[in-house]
Amino acid sequence: MQIQTLLVALDLIGTFVFALSGAVAGVKHQLDIFGVLVLSFAAATAGGLTRDLLIGAVPPAAISNLPYIIVPVLAGLVVFWAPGIVRRLRHAVVLFDAAGLALFEVSGTQKALTFDFNPLAAVLLGVLTGIGGGIVRDMLVNEVPTVLRRELYAVAGLAGAAVVVLGDWLRLPPAPVAAAAALLCFGLRLVAIWRKWHLPIAEPPPPSNP
Amino acid sequence: MQIQTLLVALDLIGTFVFALSGAVAGVKHQLDIFGVLVLSFAAATAGGLTRDLLIGAVPPAAISNLPYIIVPVLAGLVVFWAPGIVRRLRHAVVLFDAAGLALFEVSGTQKALTFDFNPLAAVLLGVLTGIGGGIVRDMLVNEVPTVLRRELYAVAGLAGAAVVVLGDWLRLPPAPVAAAAALLCFGLRLVAIWRKWHLPIAEPPPPSNP
Amino acid sequence: MQIQTLLVALDLIGTFVFALSGAVAGVKHQLDIFGVLVLSFAAATAGGLTRDLLIGAVPPAAISNLPYIIVPVLAGLVVFWAPGIVRRLRHAVVLFDAAGLALFEVSGTQKALTFDFNPLAAVLLGVLTGIGGGIVRDMLVNEVPTVLRRELYAVAGLAGAAVVVLGDWLRLPPAPVAAAAALLCFGLRLVAIWRKWHLPIAEPPPPSNP
């Protein structure tokens, strides 16, 4: 029971930090306050919403549970009215964002396993939960999603999701597996930022490319 | 019964004017006729489609009911073959667009209440119904959605949706509440255009912003 | 039974070639390998995923069936690690893409008919299955979808979908109808490329356009 409460708390922290990232993107593109709130909400919930639609968990938690609506609105208002706070705390925001990724990947993968998806689909849905919000956020402000071209963001998520699936396959107890997976994802993400690790980039296309 | 017929008629008018806005955007970006029709359809139905997916009303009305397919196609053809008509009627189009927003917000909010969503979620789904089409339309032609950076478009919708939810909470009769909500949204939108009201814009980010 | 196996094989070939088109777009925009794989997967499956969500076929085949996950990943890896192969085979890729379009349109329309949609909705869902992946692919790399402004791509799909619906309405045996529809779509697409047929483009807007 206490673990369940902890998980919900962590999930809401993830929602909050992803909403912060959305609101910051909105302020950067000089949206009005409504636009900033839409970006908060999209960044915080689009991944989970899409996952829930795909697995048939309708209506999605992000719509039917009040905290998932209130938390992004709060995050958006904080960024809009007090952008200085976010700037001062930007190192903390990177930490929280890594934590949000870790939590969303793990909870997304576990939810997919609960719905009896095959392991590969569960990993896919876990990664989608983690990166979907950022993709929609970037598309709304007309940018190529950073997760498609940046450091080991998604790979950290993949690693976490793979651990959850492996633990489930080996019938290990879910709580410690989830903790290990989240820590792996979180740690990998931070090391990747610190060491500037990135994935191989596609070679530039030849000039004659049609 | 007559009210039901009236509501369907108004909903189809809303569909038509939103489809016009999509087709105009397509012509502006020099799409071919198929592209113009896709934009008509997207602008007219994306909001309602997304709402229906999220609340589990599958298949969405916009797919299973013929008029919701035929009306956007007609609007697209009118704009494509007779753009002069739309230009001459552009003040009427602004009126119709405000009417479409009002109708979509109200019908979207009421539909969400029918599916037993909490009040905040119902407002959210009402606003999504009203603005979703415009967001998808703008994303398809590679623009930051105007609703995220323009005058009181969404706020008019929010006000209308809030009145519907409040009326439901107070157990007032739905028909007059819907009428009042739609009129409030419609009026607020027109006054906002007339007086050039707009929401506060986020302050420009500092140059050192990463 | 053999026809069923053939259809699945053809559907997977369609998935593969659409995934190639996504991966090529990713390489062109210098995404990292994860981004390239996301584009492969999006181009190959977004059309079918959206159709399945709209008709209520949840979870979509593209998520629950392993081959639909593995094939796009393979296509993405091929393009990423051996772009020369794709360049040398680019005429074959055009052929395969036309085949993919034909197969997706036909299977999408048939699936919609199975779910008892009206004929117009079935055509719409068939076209969506054929072009949805390309639209999401282009939106992810921040381009106006080519299908909205190019040669007779969607019209070839429309023709194929219309034949399927007509055959169903006349109660003709499905297998030969599907073959005829796919051949019509495939042939029309190739002739359109060869003769540079294209749809009428919207006339440029007047300078005073608001």
Explain what this protein looks like in three dimensions:
The first copy, chain A, is mainly α and 210 residues long. Chain A has nine helices and no strands. Chain A is globular, with a radius of gyration of 17 Å. Chain B binds chain C through residues 26-36, 38-39, 49, 53, 58-60, 63-64, 66, 69-70, 80, 83, 87, 90, 139-142, and chain C through 53-56, 115, 117-118, 120-121, 124-125, 135, 139, 142-145, 147-150, 153-155, 198-206, 209-210.
Can you give keywords for this protein?
homotrimer; 210 residues; mainly alpha; 9 helices; 77% helix
SSE string of chain A: HHHHHHHHH
Assembly annotation: homotrimer
Counting structural domains of chain A, the number is 1
The Cα radius of gyration of chain A reads: 17 Å
Count the E strands of chain A.
Answer: 0
Kindly report the average pLDDT value of chain A. 86
- Decide which structural class fits the backbone of chain A: mainly alpha
N- to C-terminal separation of chain A? 59 Å
Largest interface: A-B, 31 and 35 residues
Shape of chain A: globular
The low-pLDDT segments of chain A are: none
The largest sheet of chain A, given as strand count, sense and whether it forms a barrel, is: none
Question: Helix content range of the residues of chain A, please?
Answer: over 70%
Helix count of chain A equals 9
Q: What fraction strand of chain A?
A: under 5%
